[in-house]
Structures are given as C-alpha cells and as structure tokens.
Specification:
Strand content: 15-25%
Order of helices and strands: HHHHEHEEHHEHEHEEEHHEEHEEHHEHHH
Structural class: alpha+beta
Distance between the termini: 60 Å
Shape: globular
Bound molecules: flavin-adenine dinucleotide, iron/sulfur cluster
Strand order of the largest sheet: 3-2-4-5-9-10-1-11
Largest sheet: 8 strands, mixed
Helix content: 25-40%
Radius of gyration: 20 Å
C-alpha cells in the first residue's frame, strides 16, 4: 500500500469556505481542494517565494543584474510569433490552444488544465481537466476574471494521470509549483500567460458598462499596444477606447485587491509564457524559460511565423507622469485622450520597451497599494526584482 500524502490524511479537516489570504485571495482554486493543507506555504499572497521557486523550476533564480531578466524573469530566449493559420475566436492567434492540442494528441500528456466558460455566461470561468482536443479548443479566449483553475487538483489525483499540462496565470502557477511535489505526477508541463488588472465577474461587468458602448455584445477585449482598449463584438465589429479616456475614478475600485498587490505579471514560474506585450502589434510574445518550454515551442514551430523581439523608445517619462495621474484618478475628455493616444503611439515605447512600460506602470501602482493597505507585509511581499524596478521612480507619499 502506498503511503498517504499529508493532504490526503487531512481530508476530513477540509474547510469548505476558507480563504486564508482573506481579501487578497485571487481565488486560484487551491483552497477548494484538500491541498488547502499546504496553503500557508503555497499561497502567493501569504508566502512570497518567487526566487526559490524559480530555482526549483528553472535550475536558477533570475539574474537581477541582467536588465532583461530583471523584467522578464529567467529565460533562454524571447521571440515574436504568430500562427500561420490563426484559430478563429482565440484571444490572439491561438498559440496557447495549439500547443495544448498538440501535446495531448501527440501523447506528451494525458490531460490539460484549462478554463472554459459556463453555459450561461461567456465570461464566467469554469476550470476543467481537458481530455480531448475539443475540450481544449472550447477553453480558447481569455476569461478576464479571477479563475479557480486549481480547483481541479483533486480530480487530477483521482484520475490517476501522470503526465499533465497546466495552463494558467501567475498566482495559480505559484501555488501549483509550491505543491508540485505532492501531485504524484511523473511529468508536469506549465504553459503560462502574463496577467494583470484582473477582476471579479461583478468588477468586469462594471468595466464593460463604464467603458463599452454595447457591453452585452462584447465577446473579447484586450488592452493593446496602441494604448487603446479593443473590444470585439458579437457581429465582428471592433470598438476602440483610448486608455487615457478611461473613467479611472469609476474604475479604480474594480481591480481585485489580489491583482493590486501582484508582482508576477510575467508568470515567472511557467516553462513557457505566451503573451503579446513585448511583440509588434498583431504578433504574440514568447518567453522560453527552460528546456522543457523550448520542447513545447518546438512542437508547434512549423505552424508559426517568427521574428526576433525588438525594443524602441524610452518609457521612463511616460511612467513617471502616469503615477500621479493614476493616484488622482484623472480622466481626460475623449478628444484629448484620443489625441494623446495617437501622439504616444507615434513616439512612444514599442516592443520590449512597451512591455517594460506596462510592468513599470503596474508595479509602481501596486507598490503604492501594498504600502498603503498592507504596510506590515510590504517588505516581505514585494519581490526583490520588483523593488528594483519601482526604485527608478519618484513615488507620492
Ligand atoms: P488562446 O488560444 O485563446 O487560449 C487562451 C488560454 O487562456 C486558454 O487555454 C484558457 O484556458 C486560458 N485562460 C483564459 N482565461 C484565463 C484565466 N482567467 N485564468 C487562467 N487561464 C485563463 N498578455 C500580455 O502580454 N499582457 C497582459 O497584460 C496580459 N493580460 C492578461 C490578463 C488575463 C486575465 C489573461 C487571462 C491573459 C492576459 N494576457 C496578457 C495573455 C494574453 O491576453 C493571451 O491570453 C495570450 O497571449 C494567449 O493568447 P492565445 O490566442 O494563444 O490564447
Ligand atoms: Fe487559497 Fe489561492 Fe486564495 Fe491563496 S489565493 S487563499 S491559495 S484560494
Ligand atoms: Fe493572479 Fe496577478 Fe493575474 Fe491577479 S493579476 S489574477 S493576482 S496573476
């Protein structure tokens, strides 16, 4: 008989509605399972341990003196890519779904953790352990809300699966890495996306209603590199709203407290990260963190166009100006916002410099949030790389 692991012995103790991180909980799903047993060590909001987990996942933690690693984490290569034949309805060109489908159909893994939506609501997340290509494809496109992806951990254990792919955002992957050794797997692959400014389902509704002309028909949106939010509607039409015209006063409170205190924008612990913000408009940004991530990318390489990443402009002045503007919740009239968007797009940061712009803007905002709301945990909670990034700017008191 195999020995029981600690969370299996603790089954009877499982509290059903406890979230030890309290208001900072990002609803990653761990606490919906017996793995709550490990929460004190595993939760990204109770125990910040990115550097240690990087060392376990990638063989070393990031080199803080290497400028690209400081920002983008441990990596062996970055590139821009897009599918030659995009998947219709995917968030971008569908590289994430394609990698997952290939890994499953070619027998690399027996199941894939991903997130579909509920039948009633296209934006309400429903995590699943996908066992078929159709189930993976039904999980395409972002559910831009907090999603309890790890609530399938017990199902994985029951299924007897030994080779698994998990798709997820930074806070989910931090908790996953922390319990990886307890999952009883032979091989775990982790495919991550960057993530920032996430919201509850109610927060999303407020954002859509405050920002879009037709909130009920939005099927997909993204904060784009042209400094505009692009909403795609059911009839295929595109609505663009400049960042600088967003009603920041109304929207300031919609972001989840977890996401206002999150510093793992670039998903430091995934083997492979697929986003968009370090790539030219229309392309996806790929960060290969370790040899396992490279194998995953190689699997779909024949289906991709690729090009090297580039970097252009200087973000510093724009970030510094955005700090008090956010703090005071300034909203520009729409004509001025559009004009500012056009000017910034022409002369503003591009490629990796745009990604740094976005990281700097969010880290400075989040640092101020933690400093004001959780001053006792500031020192421990903010990772060293984020402290160095924030130090470049003058923050309001
Ligand atoms: P698809 O093939 O459409 O697959 C999307 C995958 O995402 C699916 O497998 C699904 O399981 C998973 N997924 C969907 N919603 C969630 C969720 N809530 N939690 C966990 N997994 C989910 N990239 C950037 O470069 N900069 C950003 O600021 C940024 N913010 C993001 C915010 C959120 C909330 C999310 C979910 C993603 C964000 N991304 C960001 C990633 C980017 O939007 C795309 O998801 C990524 O480039 C993959 O596109 P794709 O077409 O390959 O994905
Ligand atoms: Fe539990 Fe996850 Fe919430 Fe932390 S973030 S309290 S691990 S559900
Ligand atoms: Fe999790 Fe951070 Fe994304 Fe919020 S912003 S859902 S805390 S990874």
């Amino acid at each position: 008989m195999t020995a029981l692991r600690p969370h299996q012995k603790a089954k009877a103790l499982k509290p059903t509605s406890r979230r030890p991180a309290k208001e900072l909980c990002s609803e990653c799903g761990l606490c919906d399972t017996n793995y709550i047993h490990y929460v004190k060590d595993a939760c990204a909001f109770l125990h910040q341990q990115i550097a240690q987990l990087e060392a376990e996942a990638h063989g070393r933690s990031r080199n803080l003196d290497a400028p690209d690693e400081l920002y983008f984490g441990v990596h062996q290569q970055m590139l821009a890519a897009r599918k030659q034949q995009p998947i219709p309805g995917a968030q971008w060109t569908g590289i994430v779904s394609t990698i997952a489908c290939e890994m499953l159909t070619q027998g690399w893994v027996e199941g894939v953790v991903c997130v579909q939506n509920t039948p009633e609501d296209r934006f309400q997340p429903q995590p699943i352990l996908a066992r078929t290509r159709a189930e993976i494809l039904a999980a395409k496109v972002n559910k831009p809300t907090l999603s309890p992806n790890l609530n399938v951990l017990e199902e994985i254990e029951r299924s007897g699966i030994k080779r698994l792919l998990v798709i997820g955002v930074g806070c989910q992957i931090q908790a996953l890495r922390a319990v990886e050794a307890e999952l009883g797997l032979e091989k775990l692959y982790v495919l991550g996306t960057p993530c920032v400014d996430n919201v509850t389902r109610a927060g999303l509704q407020k954002f859509l209603e405050t920002t879009s002309k037709s909130p009920e028909t939005v099927v997909h949106y993204e904060f784009m590199q042209d400094f505009q939010v692009h909403f795609k509607h059911e009839d295929g039409s595109l609505e663009k709203v400049p960042f600088f015209g967003l009603n920041t006063k109304e929207l300031k409170d919609i972001f989840a407290p977890s996401c206002l205190s999150c510093f793992d924008y670039v998903n430091s612990l995934a083997d492979l990260v697929v986003g968009y913000m370090g790539a030219p408009f229309g392309w996806q940004w790929i960060v290969v963190r370790n040899p396992r991530g490279q194998e995953m990318l190689d699997l779909v390489e024949p289906q991709l166009d690729t090009q090297p990443v580039t970097s252009q402009g200087d973000r510093h002045a724009a970030v510094q100006q955005s700090i008090p503007a956010y703090d005071k919740s300034v909203t520009l009239p729409m004509w001025a916002a559009k004009l500012m968007g056009v000017v910034i797009e022409k002369i503003g940061p591009k490629g990796l410099e745009y990604a740094r712009f976005s990281i700097d803007s969010h880290f400075t905002r989040n640092y101020l949030y933690v400093q004001r709301h959780h001053p006792d945990t500031l020192e421990e909670h903010v990772p060293e790389f984020a402290k160095r990034i924030v130090k470049q700017y003058k923050l309001p008191q």
